[in-house]
Design brief:
mainly alpha; two-stranded antiparallel sheet; two-stranded antiparallel ribbon; 6 helices; globular; binds zinc ion
Amino acid sequence: MAVDSFRFDGGKTWLDLFSTLGRRYSSEPEERLLSAEALSGWLIAMELSPREAATERDVFLARGLREALRNCTAALLNREPFAEQDDRFIREMLSYREHRTLSAALTLEHFSSPQAVFAEFAEQAIIAWQHPENLSLCAEPDCRRAFRDPSGRRRWCPTPACASRGRVRAFRQNQPQEAHHD
Ligand SMILES: [Zn+2]
């Protein structure tokens, strides 16, 4: 999986995790975290590469956290309670939290493991959930990706295809019915 197929436009790293699954609700969702190598490539592209290499188990955890965070974000925006299993998964990830130190050059040390990066995502999400008014779900029915939207006025996520498909549909719906000349 080429790194350029990943998207980094969610506005926050935890939100970019959602776009590792493309067209989530279509008949052919595109899973981009297909292997430990793909996960490592994504973490490097996010500038969050941990010192330990990602394993197959990390792929399982990354996908699991992605779904749990996505479900909770959608629940929050729909004013529904969190599912118990999502809540449990996120708490489990938080147990890997670690405190990063600053190097002499005032850069943050790398996380030790992929799990520590996932814990960081979970923590970012929980902080962001304090202000759900800054989050939206994409209006495209096969996407419904959560993204940062402080204006509260955006209908589509930053994936260009969503806005263009949505606009084309809206345009067609607003057209008067054409008369048939058979
Ligand atoms: Zn979208």
